[in-house]
């Protein structure tokens, strides 16, 4: 075992191994950046889109998917130009989202961005843990249904599956930074396409084999005996939050961009990667949501791979859920890396020269840092405990989506663009951007309200640490 205390760049030393800023040479490409984007964008949110269409109906459901995609792509294009300042091609690097906000907006907004970004990333990892446990439990239930029949309950506690997911994440969390995550993201991206494709295939098979088509509607579930107007309103708000969650990758966009080679310019490559990621995701979302809605109609469940609208072929349902788990193992790492790096950089600043914090031990090609090992393990354990306590899929992802979408996907990119482009206050372009910001804020607040109400309802009838699938 070898140990190395720190990495430094002397003038002219090992120049081929470092970029102009003294950091180890970045090797990311359009393929790796697109994989990172797809890993975060095509996530567990896709599983709830049939339910969303059941609440919103064909018109509002499809329209919202397209509008969220267009608005997200627009603000992501603005955000990619914030990686370097003041010039987007040759300026100084902003290594992460919060640093870009600090350089372009400064002061209070920088602190607000940091709190928003890291809170949302922590929340997302809790959501991924919950979803993975439900998918693992669905594999066991699927096999049980196949053996004992569809009328058997086959219920199982999720806590053991949360624990299994946590053990794997403790190991994966030792991947030191974004630059080492390319393979994980590529595998996760492949898995996301696999389970989305399985969901699409199963929906088509169910539609083809159905004697009578389930009821769908241009406006979603109709108000009647089983659905009050108030319940309908809250479900619509929650569905908006779910769709927002499906497009929430801006919190890690600049961190992904920081992995790219400097030539061609990072902002141009990242714009292409964002277009590929959002475009492919939107196509998958519309296919999954629309076909799932046609297959199940207004009775669509919140997660159509674990809600058991599909029982057979049981092995294909199993494969779909296993793909979900593998994907979320990678997505957990991609979404939380900025928070990991923030804590570790802050610790180095507070305790410079600390052997516990700074020393890297090498075993072959792999490095182990005792501080990283300790604190990341503790983090995963804490997330696991919270996931066991509050195992609510739909309302949780809706709340995360609503909280994420407005500040990090809308507000900060537009505010930084206004500052960088020196857009005059009161001008036509300034008014348009402010109106867009306000409209998106209202939509986000509605989604958050629906999700919070859903959480309150679920919390009122569950037992602590007894999550059952």
Automatic annotation (TrEMBL):
Domain of life: Eukaryota
UniProt source species: Tagetes erecta (African marigold)
UniProt-recorded name of the protein: Amino acid transporter transmembrane domain-containing protein
Keyword annotations from UniProtKB, A to Z: Amino-acid transport, Membrane, Transmembrane, Transmembrane helix, Transport
Cellular compartments annotated: Membrane
Pfam families per the UniProt record, alphabetical: Aa_trans
Single biological process term from Gene Ontology: amino acid transport
Keyword Transmembrane in record: yes
Keyword set includes Transport: yes
GO cellular component terms, A-Z: membrane
Classification via InterPro entries: AA_transpt_TM (IPR013057)
Segments forming domain Amino acid transporter transmembrane: 27-455
